[in-house]
Design a protein that fits this description.
This protein has about 500 residues and is of the alpha/beta class. The protein has two domains: about 270 residues, 3-Layer(aba) Sandwich (Aldehyde Dehydrogenase, Chain A, domain 1), CATH 3.40.605; about 190 residues, Aldehyde Dehydrogenase, Chain A, domain 2 (3-Layer(aba) Sandwich), CATH 3.40.309.10. A seven-stranded mixed sheet has the order 15-16-17-14-13-19-20, with helices on both faces. Strands 10-9-8-11-12-22 form a six-stranded mixed sheet, with helices on both faces. The radius of gyration is 24 Å and the shape is globular. Bound molecules: nicotinamide-adenine-dinucleotide (NAD). Nicotinamide-adenine-dinucleotide (NAD) binds next to helix 7. Nicotinamide-adenine-dinucleotide binds next to helix 7.
Length: about 500
């Protein structure tokens, strides 16, 4: 069995204490062991990162961007290998694993042009002989704490902007899917990143708490479930750190009577069941408006949901989604389905008790579809994070909008309609961070920014795009006055900056 490691000062470093099992979710077997760092190991990695950051922060932005250029090229060259690493530990299909890497790569691509986002501001003659200029400087050492469900994309969303801004980063990936981040760190070294600037420290709560209490760490970027996001935000902020913590979701899709129901049903199947529903941007609640719309939608959804193929990633393009991440997750999802049935929701497709020949111990959950769900039910209130779609019927657009807005989460939402006025009104009024119009998973492109509202995000500024460059830098403003003009002759040669 493989024994994984940390990545510290540009080398693989063995753990020195506790270990955790990493499962193959398709078979239920333990396929590797990952070290869980102690506070002392974490603090040591941070101290080394702080040393390495000094020279990296002083490296000019174009040179740092060139590391990202080479890194992007290496990610492309290793796309299949990285996708397989993702799928092997997460269980998602290979095309989905490739998508996971691709959406992270796109943030690296924006970082290739990072210097333009690091430019400061200048006021000429703000007073008599006085100029003001503001510069964006790195925070120093920052930390990234990432979830299991996007083992490539979210570490890349964290590390690429943080490093481009001149910070060193200590990344603590999910202990359930650690291998991709370790491999990305090796590729970054090959791309020219100096040793120590990116430390990958594996671990669990002990390592996270050590990050939150470490006085050298200046900023924390977290992605994961809402209770942990809120906890991390509170403790990091209390310790004087800059923090942005992205949490869970319960994404609603409104289907208006004038929507193309076939297209809406196709979208719901992809957005609800893709990656076994283990996406923070998955649609987990369908909200048809009017009885006719709801009846037509359910009629279209049932055959599509029943037809979904569930299986291991090794089946290639043949399967729609793979297993969920752990046996505990499978048990929790099935218990939530039970609770929906007990509460009186209509289970029109039942995915419980799903078994796959040859993979009887895998963590597979069949697709489930609920009709007649009401907002008081546990299946509506909880983020299920599994292949379960709940339908809440509404009478009017206003009722559907209110339902979406009253939900405590605010990550993503979508509306399917043929009416521009309704779509515009929805996009304008809804209190959710990312909105799709006839578009089910509205993850913004990498030069925009990603972030939810309400209980889906704590702290300031979004992930990636210009916001990331603000989060990972602090502003310094200089007010300068010079009493005399140029004292010596000018220089006439055309000098390169690098
Ligand atoms: P999680 O909260 O269990 O874990 C996330 C990270 O926090 C991991 O690195 C884990 O080691 C650490 N952690 C877990 N428990 C901790 C504790 N008690 N104290 C300190 N650290 C702890 O989340 P997960 O199950 O890995 O990921 C799924 C969740 O992430 C879902 O809720 C999903 O919606 C959310 N998510 C959100 C976004 C977003 O951008 N909003 C993106 C992807 C996933």
């Amino acid at each position: 069995m493989e024994t994984l490691h940390h990545w510290i000062n540009g080398a693989r470093v063995k753990g020195s204490g506790r270990m955790a099992d990493v499962y193959n979710p398709a078979t239920g077997e333990v396929q590797a062991q990952v070290p869980l760092a102690s506070k002392a190991e974490l603090d040591e990695a941070v101290a080394k990162a702080a040393e390495a950051q000094v020279a990296w922060g002083a490296t000019n932005p174009q040179r740092r961007a060139r590391v990202m250029m080479k890194f992007g090229q290496l990610i492309n060259e290793h796309m299949d290998e990285l996708a397989e690493l993702v799928s092997k530990e997460h269980g998602k299909t290979l095309p989905d694993g490739r998508g996971d890497v691709q959406r992270g790569l796109e943030v690296v691509e924006v970082c290739m042009g990072g210097p333009s986002l690091l430019k400061g501001e200048f006021t000429d003659d703000g007073g008599p002989g006085i100029d003001l200029y503001s510069m964006r400087q790195p925070l120093g050492v920052v930390a990234g704490i990432t979830p299991f469900n996007f083992p490539a994309m979210i570490p890349l969303w964290k590390m690429a902007p943080a490093l481009t801004c001149g910070n060193a980063m200590v990344l603590k990936p999910s202990e359930r899917c650690p291998s991709t981040a370790l491999r990305l760190a090796e590729l970054l070294q090959e791309a020219g990143l100096p040793d120590g600037v990116l430390q990958v420290v594996n671990g669990d709560k002990e390592a996270v708490d050590a990050i939150l209490d470490n006085e050298t760490i200046q900023g924390v970027g977290f992605v994961g479930s809402t209770p942990i996001a809120q906890y991390i935000y509170g403790r990091a902020a209390n310790n004087g750190k800059r923090a942005q913590c992205f949490g869970g979701a319960k994404n609603h899709m409104i289907i208006m009577p004038d929507a193309d129901i076939d297209k809406a049903a196709d979208a719901l199947v992809g957005a609800g069941y893709g990656a076994a529903g283990e996406r923070c941007m998955a649609i987990s609640v369908a909200v048809p408006v009017g009885k006719e719309t709801a009846d037509a939608l359910i009629e279209k959804l049932v055959p599509r949901v029943e037809k979904l193929k569930v299986g291991p990633y090794t089946s290639g393009e043949e399967v729609d989604y793979g297993p969920v991440i752990t046996a505990a997750s499978k048990a929790r999802i099935e218990k939530l389905i039970d609770s929906g049935v007990d509460a009186g929701a209509k289970l029109v497709v039942d995915g419980r008790g799903f078994k796959l020949q040859g993979y009887e111990n895998g963590f597979f959950v069949g697709p489930s579809l609920f009709d007649d769900v009401t907002p008081d039910m546990e299946i509506y209130r909880e983020e299920i994070f599994g292949p379960v779609l709940s339908t809440v019927r509404t009478e009017s657009y206003e009722e559907a909008l209110k339902l979406t807005m009253d939900n405590p989460y605010g990550n993503g939402t979508a509306i399917y309609t043929a009416d521009g006025d309704t779509a515009r009104d929805f996009a304008h009024r809804v209190n959710v961070g990312m909105v799709g119009i006839n578009f089910p998973i509205p993850v913004p492109l990498s030069y925009h920014t990603f972030g939810g509202w309400k209980k889906s995000a704590f702290g300031d500024l979004n992930q990636y795009g210009p916001d990331a460059f603000r989060f990972y830098t602090k502003t310094k403003t200089v007010t300068a006055r010079w009493f005399s003009g140029i004292k010596e002759g000018g220089e006439f040669n055309f000098k390169a900056m690098d």
